[in-house]
Design goal:
heterodimer; A: alpha+beta; hypothetical protein PF0899 fold; elongated; B: alpha/beta; seven-stranded parallel beta sheet; 8 strands; about 35% helix; about 20% strand; binds guanosine-5'-diphosphate; binds magnesium ion; binds zinc ion
Chain lengths: ~110, ~220
């Protein structure tokens, strides 16, 4: 599972942010994880705890904002949830693009 | 101690890999090499299709291969027997290749004399889909011994793939697998995708696949 390397990247970003802000301690890290990102939030949470070991991040909380998938059709501007993971427009049957749902990013870090 | 502060970051978690991938892409472009990243579940037939393809096309196209799938350590040797240069990446039990590992593997290849570089990723439909290596194209394989609904169960692996290959079609007479249904699922997940059905064993469908590779190296 690549959740471990995802968690390690989150820790790195949190540490970097803390260093840049001259902070001693990270309390909370807020991340966005899209429904279609291919990443399981539960395993990221688990792995985060395991790899947030440096003094600056140890004991910090990881908060996952899950982001629903929303697809939209470029021709009829219909937007819909690709519920069964189908990317065909229910309106015109044409191919749809993804508006949101593949996010994998650190939104903010709480520190002091 | 200071009061808690909230710092807005808005940073992509995979930014580091993406930056390394962009660097690889530049190297590939400068060397004029087309790079294809092969994804599938373990055992879907990546190495078998590679060996067959290299054997049949090596007189027309100058190939090289990076082997990332360590399920068996025979894969690199199977490729080597075709005479095509191959490099094994030591993934140290990682579940996917990343752009950094790919960069390191490039050291051992003379890209200037290569038309097409295949990268056989680790057998896994989840993780490799998230890590760009700097390739032009991801191609996802699905074998007829898996479920027809793999494309909807692992949509990302099929959404990121510009082409998909249904493999082992020689086995269809012995299975209940419905190839049209599998292709329809893939179409629903990725309408624009190019799709192939073939058997590396019987040779059925290979010519269309070969023509696709020829066209890729000709830039069409
Ligand atoms: N019947 C049949 N078996 C195949 C075909 N392609 C691969 N296999 C078998 O499937 C197994 C796994 O193949 P391999 O190429 O190692 O899969 P990989 O893990 O994706 O590289 C091997 O036993 C192959 O002989 C095919 O076209 N037809
Ligand atoms: Mg293999
Ligand atoms: Zn539409």
């Amino acid at each position: 599972m690549h959740e471990m390397s995802i968690a390690m990247s989150i820790v790195e970003i949190a540490e970097e942010t803390a260093r840049e802000a001259n902070a001693d301690k990270v309390f909370k890290v807020n991340v966005d994880i899209g429904e279609l990102s291919g990443v399981m939030s539960d395993s990221v949470l688990f792995c985060y705890e395991a790899c947030a070991t440096s003094e600056i991040v140890a004991g910090s909380e990881l908060v996952v904002n899950s982001i629903e998938a929303v697809a939209s059709c470029p021709s009829c501007e219909n937007s819909f949830s690709p519920k069964d993971r189908y990317f065909l427009c229910p309106g015109c049957g044409g191919p749809a693009g993804l508006l949101q749902g593949e996010e994998l990013s650190v939104r903010s870090v709480e520190l002091s | 101690m200071n009061d808690p502060r909230v710092i807005t970051v808005k940073k992509d978690i995979l930014a580091k890999n993406d930056a390394l991938a962009a660097n690889n892409q530049l190297i590939f472009k400068e060397s004029g090499v087309i790079v294809v990243n092969l994804l599938s579940s373990p055992g879907a037939g990546k190495t078998t299709l590679l060996v067959k393809t290299l054997t049949d096309l090596k007189s027309e196209i100058k190939f090289a291969v990076i082997e990332g799938d360590q399920r068996t350590d025979n894969d690199a040797r199977r490729i080597m027997e075709t005479g095509v240069p191959v490099t094994q990446i030591n993934t140290q039990s990682a579940c996917h290749l990343d752009a950094g590992m790919t960069f390191q593997a490039l050291d051992t290849l003379d890209l200037g004399s290569v038309d097409m570089l295949f990268i056989e990723n680790v057998g896994n439909l989840v993780c490799p889909a998230s890590y760009d290596l700097g390739e032009q194209m991801k191609i996802t394989l699905l074998s007829v011994t898996e479920g027809e609904d793999k494309p909807v169960k692992y949509p990302k692996a099929f959404r990121v793939a510009d082409a998909m290959v249904l493999t082992k079609t020689d086995l269809l007479p012995y299975l209940d697998f419905d190839p049209d249904q599998a292709m329809e699922y893939a179409r629903k997940v990725n309408p624009a995708q190019k799709r192939f059905r073939l058997s590396a064993k019987s040779g059925a469908g290979l010519e269309e696949w070969y023509q696709f590779l020829r066209d890729l190296t000709n830039g069409s």
